[in-house]
Design brief:
Layout (H helix, E strand, L loop, with lengths): L3 H14 L6 H32 L8 H14 L6 H8 L2 H9 L4 H25 L7 E8 L2 E10 L3 H29 L5 H28 L6 H11 L3 H11 L12 H10 L17 H5 L6 H28 L7 H35 L1 H5 L3 H20 L8 H17 L6 E2 L3 H21 L7 H5 L10 H5 L10 H14 L4 H9 L1
Antiparallel strand pairs: 1-2, 2-3
Helix pairs in contact: 2-3, 2-4, 6-18, 7-17, 7-18, 8-16, 8-17, 10-16, 10-22, 13-14, 14-16
Amino acid sequence: MQKLLPRKASQNQSFDKAIPIILRPLFRAYILGYTSSAGPRLLTLFLVHLSRRRKNIDPRPEGEDHFWSSLVGILKGGLEFQRFPTFCAALIPLREVFKRLLEIVPVTTQLRLTRYLSTFISAYFSLQLLQSRPSKTFTEDLLYETKNGIESRPTRFAGRTLDLTLFAFTRAIDCIVGELWAKHKSRRQASRKWSRLDKTISSLTDPTLFASSCALIMWAFIYTPARLPRAYNKWIQSAAQVDSRLLKALRYCRYGELKYGVETGQAHLLGNMCKDYGLPEEYGDPTKSIPFPCELVHMGSGPNCEFHAVSRFYKSFIWSASMYLPLNLALLLRTPKISTKSLIHAFKSSARSSAFLSTFITLFYYGICLTRTRLGPHILGTSAHACQAIDSGYGIGTGCWMCGWSVVLETAKRREEMGLFVAPRALATLLPRRYRWEEQWIERVVFAWGAAVVFTRVGENSNGKGDLSIGVGVDVDIDIGIGVGIDIYGGKIMGGGEGGVEDGDEDEDEDEDEDEDERKGIRKG
């Protein structure tokens, strides 16, 4: 016995030497998982088979063929990727593999990899847990062809956590771009090559991000409102104070249901609107008015586009101030002693935020007027075809692009945060709100990557304050003015946590109540 022990040990050692050291824990865990998974099933199969043969009982017509097919099925099934052996191979030796890998890299890199990998893994499985909850909004009965005919089956769709994923993704991109730009800036300044062009790019990046995001969001609000949460649509419509009949007319122009010079049966839509605003009814008839007078777009503010812009600014400023001033004053109640300086700061912050939002709304409307009346006809012409092109996209596109540049009224810090707040929602308008359930792993990988990048960056930040807002989307030192960026599109941080996801469910439920005309336009878009 004593002579056999060294021989046995040497055999195991020779077997282990055939496998790379770093893969040995993984291999052993896989074998253990495969044995524990397939072993009991094989034992049960053999016992049942022997019992039937001993009793001469074989109710299955295939007899021995069934035994061998079951045997092969058990052996092959354990080798599939989404089975217990793979789980063991990934879970048990993971710590050991990381430890061996990190021994050959510097201590700083070890810490960075540890932060990244731990966050990636936890974020991946956390989102998977969040996605596993059933949702009525993302479940639909679909028709399937079966051997018994066509059957209706409940089918689950993914996309409920898309806002949260895009939030993490945009924050991660911000971390990466910010880090690269900081290194570029330090190198250029060290070599005294920091130019005016570099400074211009640095100052325009955040406003451009905000303006581009707002353009996508406002375009979706006009033409494809189903791509936005219901709360966003309600808030934008409340701030813009736009007649819903005018929105429908714009969508009809976009999708060809309302054409200048052609009787499409839609004259009553804007005709009734003209009656309500005291305008001639023929202003709303596309066969008589080519194009619709801008006075109709002004909704009772007169024919002059500049006067309409001024009146829009005034009304929007009053509306915004009535919202922001109480919020800023309420924030003062957090401190036991209210100073004159803090009170003045609250009024200034409210005025600045109100000016920003009122300018946002004014630029949107005046951009439409510029295209319809001031510049568009001189560039595109006044034919029915040109008017149709202006009212089916060019005018709205100009207003969408102009409105976001009102962010220049805000401070540099606020411009940065507001751009990051609206960017995820803008990306969401480009992606399907629902997709196949089997493709959720892609979203989990994107979310895990984004979260890992953000929290690795936060962990490496020495002061631990400024970049924390990058990780969680909130900076305690930023007053309610930053909330403007949130409130513009829904009054809450969508995707900032599970609450955002749950709210998304309710928004989608309410979207089902939209009228048939709007649905028709959305489908065509």
